[in-house]
Amino acid sequence: MATLKPMPQATKISAPFWQALKENQVKIQQCNSCDGWVFFPRNHCSHCLSHDLDWKEVSGEGTLYSYTLTRIPTMPEFADEMPQALAVVELAQGVRVNTTLIDVAEEDIKVGMPVKAVFDKVSKDGETLLRFTSVSNDGGVREFKDPLEGLERNDKGQVQVPVSNLAALYALADNEFTPWSNSIVVDQALINAFAELSGDDYWIHTDPERAKTDSPFKTTIAHGSLVQVLQSKLTIALPFEITGFQTMVNYGSNRLRFPAPVPAGSVIKGRSKVQDVSVSHKGVQVTLEMHIHVEGNDRPSVINDLVILYR
Amino acid sequence: MGLAGNAAIVGAAQYKPEKYQTAPQMFHLEQVADLAHQALQDAGLHKDDLDGLVINGPQFHEASVFVPAMAAEYLGIEVNFAEVVDLGGCTAVAQIWRAAAAIEMGLCQAVLCVIPARMAPLAPNEDPAWMAQAMRYGGHSTAYGAPEAEFDLPYGHMGQNTGYAMIAQRYAAQYGYDKSAMAKIAVDQRFNAQYHKDAIFRGKELSIEDVLGSKLVADPLHVLEIVMPVAGGAAVIVASKEVAARAKKRPAFVTGFGERLSFKSPSYANDMTVTPVAEAAKRAFGMAGLSPKDMHAAQIYDCYTITVLLSLEDAGFVPKGEGQRFIKEHNLTWKGDFPLNTHGGQLSFGQAASAGGFSQVIEAFDQISNSAQGRQLKGCDNVFVSGTGGVMSEQGALILQGG
Ligand SMILES: [Zn+2]
User: Fold this and answer.
1) How much distance in Å is there from the Cα of A53 to the middle of ligand 1?
2) Reduced to 3 states, what is the DSSP secondary structure of residue B175?
3) A285 and chain B: CB distance < 8 Å anywhere?
4) DSSP character for B75?
5) Per-residue model confidence as pLDDT tens digits over A229-261
6) Mind telling me how many Å the CA of A95 is from chain B's nearest CA?
7) In Å, what is the CA distance from A307 to each residue of A284, A289, A292, A311, B132?
8) Quick one: average pLDDT of B324-333?
9) Helices (H) and strands (E) in chain A, counts
10) Where does B228-322 have alpha helices with state H?
11) For residue B111, which of B28, B49, B46 has the smallest C-alpha distance?
């Protein structure tokens, strides 16, 4: 089973390291108490435990301490890098960094060879991984290549993503919500109709008079499952369309939550984003994270992680 | 300083290594009780003799905390010493010396050391695919703030294979690399496995050409230089000299031990090619007042062939850089002049998760107690045992001596 490549999640401690990479600089910490260099980032010197560390820009030059070429991917989502040139680089300051070598032919890789930093832009937001290459290559920056670029668009402007193009599928999970959908009103008549249909006629949904006094919301509220199914009436403009599959199956929900109530008479709207794309023997599984809000409320009334299976 | 040698291994039990798909599924508590029962029978002791418990914490199926209490409750024993050990493949060795130390301190007289490693049955609503997904990062933490999640996984640094491969490449650059010497480790051990009724690769002999012709996984490691994970589990009873005197078998006294760790990723080792067992073994031999040449067998943790090479050198059996020559010059089988991993090693016996380390401990006990049917060494009194967890990141050593 494959999902997106794992990405670094910066912490308060490490943020300057990742920010520097974004700006095409290598910054590591040096201890003011003992002058020792520290990697990976810490709040304490790994030589003397002093708190007194400063971030210093370094050249990004070093030597190859060791490496291996993988003949089986270490994780399925790294299949596009085969063979992975996993490397340990010792920076000129003496600290070692786990990384990969790029643009070096297999037979040219030698333990001890001098290497230099490559700032590899791995997302369109400029997230940068620190890779290394031979000093005889051009170092510097490897620009992000959007796997969605160059793909055709349909008449709605949606990029056409073939189900076989894994890199492009992974690129869909970009953590950005679509624009908001159209809005619809959830009035008492609709709530009553749903109560009759579902058999859930609990007073909290159906008795406005009693709700005024007894309900914590001081009014009737819509059934969570009503709001959930109303997503069919919300037109959400997904920026992509997956193509080239035999069947598409609604596989259910990984998560369904009703964090905020929808009082009768509310106007609701929705948006979604691709939360995850994974590949297994069952096919390509796309998880759409659907949010429905009452207009004006930042807290969603429905969160639904819908799993759609393409094969 | 250290042990006086007044505690001994007196009994052991070990499940036959089996493929996960076909192995029986048992709850871990159930395995603990079953293995304890078998080990006590092996020792000729009774449940009520037990007053100490050392168990694995991680990967224990029925609990992630309070594991010793739950196990003691299930077994129906009262203990004066309870311990969880979290040292990966070094756990077995680490359990033994902790038990011996507790006994010598007078805390207890008989300690159950145990690691269950068969799969537990799935709950009716448990999804095996989800379980597989949860296991996909293996021993790597994906927790927010975990250095390896932040600085290793994004680059594809994951799993044991590539770490060991990088250690091997560094070694190769410093000392040279003789592929056929490395393959010979696996071949000689496979020979030994033919004489152990439970070895997973019994009945499948191996040649150097087979090893070198097998698939490369991560340069320079071939698939036949890498252990196969199997279902299993093991228990060992460590007891005081007094209790050992009424045990059925010849006890194996714990006369020396050492333990060392200082990193998780070998990338941060001072020197990748000098492994922690160097310090652990030095301490163990010093404690026992013995040296490597006094050993009648070496049961060396062998998750990979490179682990064996480096352990032989760093534990002092052969000078640094000369291990490959040594391997070619000696017959490492139980019939040979340097008996190594006489049960086949985990490479040929099978690696039952962290219980795999017990295979080396138990083989040492089997040889000392004259129980190594069909592969018994003559006059085997002193045995060196090592354990390795993570990527050569946590290592331990034991000196076991027949009483
Ligand atoms: Zn310092």
Assistant:
1) 8
2) helix
3) no
4) H
5) 999 999 999 999 999 999 999 989 999 999 999
6) 8
7) 10, 9, 17, 13, 18
8) 98
9) 6, 16
10) 241-245, 277-288, 305-314
11) B49
